[in-house]
Specification:
This is Threonylcarbamoyl-AMP synthase. One of its GO terms (biological process) is regulation of translational fidelity. GO terms for molecular function: ATP binding; double-stranded RNA binding; L-threonylcarbamoyladenylate synthase; tRNA binding. The protein is built from 10 helices and 16 strands. Bound molecules: threonylcarbamoyladenylate (TXA) and magnesium ion. Magnesium ion binds next to loops. The site of magnesium ion (MG) has 3 residues, from loops.
Length: 342
């Protein structure tokens, strides 16, 4: 299956074209403040199915529904719980997805058999314009082929999706760079399912209570353990290179890489470190200790490793708290959970 893909600027004409396609039950790619997404009308099951086909996504991984106003919630959720109201007031529009009890109008194809639905109100002006012009709440996963790093530029969407959907809107690079924080308010305690730009501490401050950390965030689930958020169980975000994360200081990292020079390794390191690691080829992914900067660069850097060719890659380890938790969470999946403590 190959269809003609148009890559066009996210201007007024582009937004109008995207909205018309969505209303016709088509899928399109567009920028958000987190990563690029592939959108389909969340109430139209056959449109949503096209997303799974285009991405090669497993059917048991549910999609996030995007809105531009809380007035769109009736029908999408069966209840707007008090905790969700607090979080929405604090962080919407913005990079936060709230898991709530599912309403009757969401297509079954979005929910993968769950009785909950993830809702997000993005802040990016292009998504908001497309929602407004189409009148559609839309389901939108990240616009990568399933298993690949999420795309943060229209060119990266093109590399994965060209021939698989009719339109990609180019709105420039994404400001946040990692996908939204996913938090569930269904169940006894609020639970963080996926870390992002909005941190655990941000959520706890807004809610005035403790938020549980889903065990799948910082380590591999044990064999047979059930992921409450299906997306967290897959090897993910992975370049073709074999990545191993080395946890330690820069000096320890450099010594380890030098000791393994026979493997002809490349390095995924922090800004400014590349020159000090010569002659090994390096890709930098943001300043050490600066989670926001690392988040903005991590997915592009994973793709850059592939563009340099398949190889053994050693990666510097980000911190595990604040926004860095989101970077660590993506990187351990890209590394298939291979972490070596130095
Ligand atoms: O920033 C984002 O959220 C981006 C942009 C495009 O908005 N979208 C995105 O979607 O990252 P996706 O499909 O790549 O990731 C959705 C994540 C998955 O880990 C999925 O398992 C989880 O959210 N999820 C969705 N609905 C869920 C539900 N009802 N219960 C638990 N987890 C859910
Ligand atoms: Mg994704």
């Amino acid at each position: 299956m190959s269809i003609e893909t148009l890559l066009c600027p996210a201007d007024q004409a582009g937004v109008a074209r995207a909205a018309a396609l969505l209303r016709q039950g088509e899928i399109i790619a567009l920028p958000t403040e987190t990563v690029y997404g592939i959108a389909a009308d969340a109430r139209n099951g056959s449109a949503v199915k096209k997303i799974f086909a285009a991405k090669g996504r497993p059917q048991d991984n549910p999609l996030i529904v995007h809105i531009d106003d809380v007035g769109m919630l009736p029908g999408l959720v069966s209840e707007f719980p008090e905790r969700a109201r607090l979080l929405a007031a604090a962080f919407w529009p913005g990079p936060l997805t709230i898991i709530m009890p599912r309403g009757p109008e969401v297509a079954d194809e979005c929910c993968a058999g769950l009785d909950t639905v993830g809702i997000r109100m993005p802040s990016h002006p292009v998504v908001r314009q497309v929602i407004e012009a189409s009148g559609c709440a839309f389901a939108a996963p990240s616009a990568n082929r399933s298993g690949r790093p999420s795309p943060t530029t229209a060119q990266d969407v093109w590399a994965d999706m060209q021939g698989r959907l009719p339109l990609i809107l180019d709105g420039g690079p994404c400001a946040v760079g990692v996908e939204s924080t996913v938090v569930s308010v269904v169940g006894a305690k609020p639970t963080l399912f996926r870390p992002g730009h909005i941190t655990l501490e941000d959520l706890e401050r807004a809610l005035g209570e403790e938020v549980e950390l889903s065990p799948a965030i910082l380590e591999k689930l044990a064999e047979g353990e059930v992921a409450r958020s299906p997306g967290m169980k897959y090897k993910h975000y992975a370049p073709r290179a074999d990545i191993t994360i080395l946890e330690g200081t820069f000096e320890q990292f450099k010594a380890y890489v030098e000791a393994h020079a026979a493997q002809d390794p490349a390095c995924l390191c922090f800004a400014g470190e590349g020159a000090k690691l010569a002659p090994f080829p390096c890709v930098e992914y943001g300043r050490e200790g600066d989670g926001d900067d690392q988040a903005r660069h991590i997915f592009r850097s994973l793709r850059a490793l592939d563009e340099q060719g398949d190889r053994v890659v050693y990666a510097r380890c980000p911190r595990k708290d604040g926004v860095s938790m989101a970077v660590y969470n993506r990187l351990i999946r890209a590394a298939a959970f291979r972490v070596v403590a130095l």
